[in-house]
Amino acid sequence: MTDIKRRQFVTRASALASIAALPASAAPSAIVAASTETSSATDTMLPPVLHMVYFWLNNPGSTEDKAKLIAGLESLKAIPQIHSIHIGVPANTLKRDVIDNSFDVSELMFFESVEAQNEYQSHPIHKQFVEQCAGLWRKVVVRDSVSV
Length: 148
What we know:
Blueprint: H1 3-20, H2 28-43, E1 49-57, H3 63-75, E2 84-88, E3 105-111, H4 114-121, H5 124-133, E4 137-146
Keywords: Signal
Protein name: Stress responsive alpha-beta barrel
Domain Stress-response A/B barrel: 49-145
């Protein structure tokens, strides 16, 4: 564990522990204040630019195609502009009308700036990923956001 990640963990754990330590009878305003402190402490540690991508496979039942796509996404980790990446599949959470878990594979990336995200888009490894894997998916939805 790097020193920075260790500090982030300690900061987050301390903030969460402060909320847990509040008595059940604590005034709601105390809980809100504590959770706001936690939120601002952890929010400042996350890179400000998120790149969320959802993939629907041409052959949704194909474990081979899913594995190829995931391997392609794993190759993107070598791009230096990416601060961190999460590659996943739909979670088996409670079914609710607001949840869309119809995708097959997802990717969530963090970038330090919009410029870094733009550089990622034109990076040769990203271009190679698109070239090699585009035939695997029938639909892609991308959502980019920046912290407020």
